Amino acid sequence: MALKKSELYSSLWSSCDELRGGMDASQYKDYVLVLLFIKYVSDKYADIPFAPINVPEGASFKDMVALKGKPDIGDQINKKIIAPLVNANKLSDMPDFNDSAKLGSGKEQVERLTNLIAIFENPALDFSKNRAEGDDILGDAYEYLMRHFATESGKSKGQFYTPAEVSRIIAQILGIRYADTTSSTTAYDPTCGSGSLLLKVADEARTKITLYGQEKDATTSGLARMNMILHNNPEALIVQGNTLTDPRFKDRETLKTFDYVVANPPFSDKRWSTGLDPLKDIYERFKPFGIPPAKQGDYAYLLHIVRSLKSTGKGACILPHGVLFRGNSEAEIRHALVRKGYIKGIIGLPANLFYGTGIPACIIVIDKEEAQNRKSIFMIDASAGFMKDGPKNRLRAQDIHRIVDVFTRQAEIPKYSRIVSFEEIEKNEFNLNLPRYIDSQQDEDLQDIEGHLHGGIPCADIDALQSYWNICPQLRQTLFKEKRPGYLELAVDKSAIKSTIYEHPEFAAFIADMNAHFAAWRTKTSDVLRQLEPGCHPKEIIDELSENLLAHYADKPLISQYDIYQHLMDYWAETMQDDCYLIADEGWKADTYRITEKDKKGKEKDKGWICDLVPKPLIVSRYFAKEQEAIDKLTAELESITASMTELEEEHGGEEGAFSELEKVNKANVAARLKDIKNVAARLKDIKSDREAKEEAAVLNDWLRLANEEANLKKRLKDAETLLDSKAYHYYPKLTEDDVKTLVVEDKWLSSLDIAIHGEMDRISQSLTQRVKELAERYEIPMPQMTDRVAELEAKVNRHLERMGFRL
């Protein structure tokens, strides 16, 4: 059975987190990621001559497994595994596996390291074969673990990871995908952290490029080197050191320059000048612009980037929003940067994206190539586009795509993006704060005083829905009629607004056209998906599918192409990605497997079966619809009987009700109570007692009859479900490859997307319905009528109070 990508990520994280104990996540990550690294390079490069990574004999993961349970396991890992790997590959120091302060001592350390190694012994974690060339499953798993460790590490420990979504934006807006890159093309990150940002730039290039990175923290620079190897960039040059005080990439006495420079430096670094005299900076990073303030290092890093770019170079830097508007020396630097034309664009991001801080940040895009001719700056305010993800905010796929599309096209969109001239910036004294140039606030829903006084919906509010009337011009006349000049009223009953919209010929035609539009994409896409074969590249698949879908819905009315795109990307992440990796590994195979669990005694218990690629409901829906229909009918009957029993218990459950004498309502107690009633009735001849006994007995007998029916239905339902489960299970071997393709492509993937995208049609109609109803209710009763009604009700209340003896 192939390893599902999502299961790899989640199982690694949950297992490692479970073993962490009291250790801080920022420390524990070092051990987990080193183990992941050793496992990967052992599978990939051990015993391979001239491999980019040398795995010395006796220093592979299998040699580490041999140390499990040994009393000196930590010391042996250091000496036999870590040291040879570090020396053979000139890696930086790795964490101490014999550190009792972090891993415990004695038996505790032995158990913790033994269990940690066992996590990576899973047979499915065999990376000797690259199942899908170009899809770095382990590299992505590394990113996944880094993100989770960053989340767990707290506010001060998140600097080692830049969210992948932000990295992707930077990599794409640089335009490297469309450049003529070669192996001599260079990309540099002066504060590379774990290297994720640098790797995203490399991924965007059409050819292999040369990567350079410098990181101040020794441990983090080691993570970056491992990350490069895991992402198939072992030749990347990562060095350790303080970039500002001791830049390591130089051409003699000047800074080395690069084609692309990207960075996510520490926000507002208060120690940036420690060990550095900016006035005597031999690299002349500050001389042309000004010296950043001693307690704000943001511009120090940005100016280092500017100095590190070739004359045709392009760069991008993540900085806090304050750099756009803070005064004094920063204002002078900002003035100089704008005047020199180095700033191509500014992208405002949502707050709370980054693990080290909750403040909003921006991306400043530097482009030296067109600097002399630049007369404007392109600005985007993307602060409103995000989703909540636990304690942090996170950019969605559609947010990323929209930012990149708009920036690439330099498209001006109201409340989102603008081309701002230097003249306008100069009028604002070179303050680049985005709200000065882009009003991203939502329009206020204004109240119309005359409408409230005299009734009637203002025509202006209905005109604001013009995007709907462009598609359905006659629908407006159907919904509204003139009340007086400038004001309308509903032409239909308020309760009929929804049905009037849904059933109107123009709206029905619009929905039919949109359904046909999706059907056309579905037919074309079905043919493409059926051609997938083992060895296919899942990342290429989703890139092609998503771009085709986005283009297919470009310029369609009333619907956002990015919302449609997001539905596909969500479904990809939830389901389709794992399916494509299964197909890439095994082909169109619908293999079932049993699910077992161990009880407290260690005995395995069969919990049924499952098929990942073709779940049971798909088989049942297509081949056993009649059997499922019969089960659904039995289920409905059972629910009806159960509801009748509950209703009976509630109706006769009071203090003197038929069930009052029962401690618990069940068949045994009800039968016993009926027997008692019969015995008492035989002894007593009182007419009243006899009547009450018969009434109680009738209720209990009704309940008992229903209980017997319920038990019978439960048995029949269980038998039917067992039989259907068996039929479905034994049907899988009969499936042909074409059957599997139909079940997966049509019944699973495209049907799910069909439902999701049809939901957008419902949202459109619901939005119109809700707005029309809201406006109708807002101006339904004029203020004078409301006042009269209030006075009338007040008079009634006063009369009631007087009758009760109260006088106001």
Automatic annotation (TrEMBL):
Residues 10-120 form the N6 adenine-specific DNA methyltransferase N-terminal domain. InterPro entries: D12N6_MeTrfase_N, DNA_Adenine_Mtase, DNA_methylase_A-5, DNA_methylase_N6_adenine_CS, Restrct_endonuc_T1M, SAM-dependent_MTases_sf, T1MK-like_N_sf. It is an enzyme of class 2 (transferase). The keyword Coiled coil applies. GO terms for biological process: DNA restriction-modification system; methylation. Keywords: Coiled coil, Methyltransferase, Restriction system, S-adenosyl-L-methionine, Transferase. Residues 624-651 form a coiled coil. Residues 135-444 form the DNA methylase adenine-specific domain. The keyword tRNA processing does not apply. It comes from the Archaea. Its EC number is 2.1.1.72. It catalyses: a 2'-deoxyadenosine in DNA + S-adenosyl-L-methionine = an N(6)-methyl-2'-deoxyadenosine in DNA + S-adenosyl-L-homocysteine + H(+). Pfam families: HsdM_N, N6_Mtase. GO terms for molecular function: DNA binding; N-methyltransferase activity; site-specific DNA-methyltransferase (adenine-specific) activity. This is site-specific DNA-methyltransferase (adenine-specific). It comes from Methanosarcina mazei (strain ATCC BAA-159 / DSM 3647 / Goe1 / Go1 / JCM 11833 / OCM 88).
